[in-house]
Amino acid sequence: MSADGAGGVSRSPVERYTDRMVAALQRLEASDDPNLTFSRLIDVMGRSSHRLLILLFTLLNMLPGPPGFGGTIAWTTFGIALAMIFGWPIRLPALIGDRKLPLSLLIKLSERVAVAARYAARFSRPRLKWLTGAAATIPFGIFVMAISVVMTIPIPFINAIPNVGLCIMSFSMLNRDGVGLLAGLVVCLLGLTVAAAALFGAFELASTAIESIR
User: Fold this and answer.
1) How far is CA 176 from CA 9, 47, 81, 127, 213, in A?
2) What is the rounded distance in angstroms from the CA atom of residue 191 to the CA atom of residue 128?
3) Predicted pLDDT of residue 3
4) Which residue, 12, 20, 64, 84, could crosslink 50 as a Cys pair with Cβ 3.0–4.6 Å?
5) Distance between CA atoms of 127 and 1, rounded to whole angstroms?
6) DSSP character string of 23-75
7) Exposed, middle or buried: residue 86 (CB in 10 Å: 0-12, 13-18, 19+)?
8) Stated pTM of the model
């Protein structure tokens, strides 16, 4: 941790990131053009803020949305992770980038995340930092891409646990917390196991139904 702000208040890395996220969205809301799209959100946060944007989009995937919203979020997360692996600035195709986002809802979400980050900082702190450093960028990015592909499967609720795990991992990467990263990895793997079991069950049910018709 380091001292920041008035009175030298000590804040964790993730608190500084989430405060930055809230401030950027509030500035956008106060601007002459407060309309928010996927591409503008990336512009506001910074086209090279890969880790912060992965956290933000995993949080967005927890919000209810119209059909296809979750898949759009998942493919966007995939693209951000791919750009992170190659060190590219993030650019989205117009098909995704021009989609609108609810700014007021996103501000409320980000404010709650900032509060949660302050509480989480009591338990999460920089440790095993080698698991979250620059050398971890490629393995983390590949894992995010793999989870994102799974989350495009349009079956309700099976993506919730992997998404929570990915959120924990992203939070921990920002906070340089290797222990938290491993905890998020376990949650993701548990979610993938549940998703695989659900898909297998759906396949078996469909096969049984087809056989009974025959």
Assistant:
1) 19, 21, 18, 7, 55
2) 24
3) 46
4) 84
5) 11
6) HHHHHHHHSS----BHHHHHHHH-TT-HHHHHHHHHHHTTS--STTHHHHHHH
7) exposed
8) 0.87
3-state secondary structure of 158: coil
Average pLDDT rounded to a whole number, residues 170-191? 95
Average pLDDT score, the chain: 88
Q: Is the pLDDT of residue 1 over 90?
A: no
Integer angstrom CA distances of residue 143 from 81, 158, 188, 189: 9, 18, 10, 11
Question: DSSP of 21-32, one letter per residue?
Answer: HHHHHHHHHHSS
CA–CA dist 63, 193 (Å, integer)? 23
Q: What are the backbone angles phi and psi of residue 177, rounded to the nearest 5°?
A: -110, 95
* pLDDT tens profile 82-101: 999 999 999 999 999 999 99
| pLDDT at position 81 over 50 | yes
Residue environment code for 138-176, b if the CB has 16+ CB neighbours within 10 A, otherwise e: eebbebbbebbebbeeeeeebbbbbbbbbbbbbbbbbbb
CB-based burial of residue 19 (10 Å sphere; 0-12 exposed, 13-18 middle, 19+ buried)?
A: middle
Average pLDDT on 19-31 reads: 92
Token pair, residue 18, equals 């989430």
Amino acid at 33: D
H or E segment and range at residue 194: helix 178-213
